[in-house]
Each structure stands twice: as C-alpha cells, then as structure tokens.
Amino acid sequence: MRAEFDRATVTKAYARWAPIYDLVFARIFERGHRAAVAACERVGGRILEVGVGTGLTLPYYSGSARVFGIDFSEPMLTKARQRVAEERLAHVDGLEVMDAERLDFADESFDVVVAQCVVNTVPHAEVALDEFARVLKVGGEIVLLNRVGAEAGPRLAFERLFQPMARRLGWQSDFPWQRFARWLEATPYDIRLIERRPVPPLGHFSIIRFGKASANRRNDVVAQAHAA
C-alpha cells in the first residue's frame, strides 16, 4: 500500500465524514445494507460489525440479534452511540474504538463478522480479512458489502485515475476481485467463498460471503500428515 493511504489519512477522512455520512450514504446503500444484515441474521448468534461507523445499519437488525460494533473513528462512533441511545437498540451489546487490523477479541469469538464498505478503506485489506477469519467460529460466515473494482475497460481506467482523490476521501477505488482471490489462496484459515452477488448502486458493490470450514488450514495439513 502506498504511504499516502495510511491510518492517519483514514482517521482524518472519517472525522470529516462523520457529520454528513448518513445524509450522503443512507439512501444510496440502504438495499445493500439490508441485504448484508439479512445474511448475518440467517446465521444468527453473536455478530461483530467491523466499521460500524455512525451505526447506520444497527436499526436493521431484529431484536433477537446480538451485535457488537467497532470502528476506527471516534467521531463516527459518537454518532453511533447517540443512535443506539435514541432508538433504544437493546440488541447492541457494545460499541468500541478498534482497529480492523488488530481486533481485540479471542479466536473464534463470533458467529458472524460483517464489514460493510470497509475492506477497501483499511491500509492492509488482507491483514483485516485474516483478523475477521481469526475471530470467526468454525461454521460461521464473513459477510461483506464491498466495492469490487473493474477488471478492464473504461471503468478500470477511471478508477485508477480517481485513486489519488479516493485515498484522500478515505477509500481505494481500484480494488479488484483478484485481491479477494489472492487472499483466499494465502490465508492460513480454512475459508471458502459461499456467495458473490452484485447489489445497488449500479452493481459496483457486491454482497460477498465467506464460510469458515475449520479452525486452521495449516493444522488440517499437519493432521492429515500424521494420519497418513
């Protein structure tokens, strides 16, 4: 990752976004947010929402959900805490400032890890994805609502041209599917792709679901070698 896209840049960007985030993004991403929440609730159990932001999605969960939200931005979380208090969202177990690349949870703590419009906003996406896998229980799911960049053509050219501005705004515009595919090959965790489907707006974003089949891919290899 280039030096100009770092934690300081992200922190400053989302401090600026906090007062107007809901106004700008609530309607645009509502269908995608609701689809991601529905995917989480099909799994159920304890849900970790990474990058919970202003808590825009928290009212979409049913009362039976148990949701813990984290975000890197204190100004965004201040808005989320206000929302939880004002709307009496009793299904929210807590909200804390935390880095997606350094989750302060034990291994296999959650049934679902959901990150909406987050993976292309962290400096090291693969590190964050590994952390999601680490804290996820076997049989659980990682649910992402994420922008998937173009593979070729005019949109790819535009994304690359726009990238310097996107970094200043707090995200990466050029974020192709190959980043996810390479992570699946490299991660030490036994993660499998369950679903990838485009959602509005314009199909530039997708619901992506990964399942955790076993605790650790490397441990499986060792176990198989011993059995042989």
Description of the structure:
By secondary structure, the chain is an alpha/beta fold. The protein has one domain: Rossmann fold, CATH 3.40.50.150. It has a seven-stranded mixed β-sheet with strand order 3-2-1-4-5-7-6. It is globular and about 45 Å long. The chain starts with 6 loop residues before the first helix and ends with a helix. The C terminus is likely disordered.
Summarize the structure.
The chain is an alpha/beta fold and about 230 residues long. The protein has helices spanning about 5-15, 20-45, 75-85, 125-135, 155-170, 175-185, 215-225, and strands at about 45-50, 65-70, 90-95, 110-115, 135-145, 190-200, 205-215.
List keywords for this structure.
25% strand; 43% helix; seven-stranded mixed sheet; single chain; disordered C terminus; alpha/beta; 228 residues; Rossmann fold
Write the layout of secondary structure elements.
Elements: H1 7-17, H2 21-43, E1 46-50, E2 66-71, H3 74-87, E3 92-97, E4 110-116, H4 125-135, E5 136-147, H5 153-169, H6 177-186, E6 190-199, E7 205-214, H7 217-227
Parallel strand pairs: 1-2, 1-4, 2-3, 4-5
Antiparallel strand pairs: 5-7, 6-7
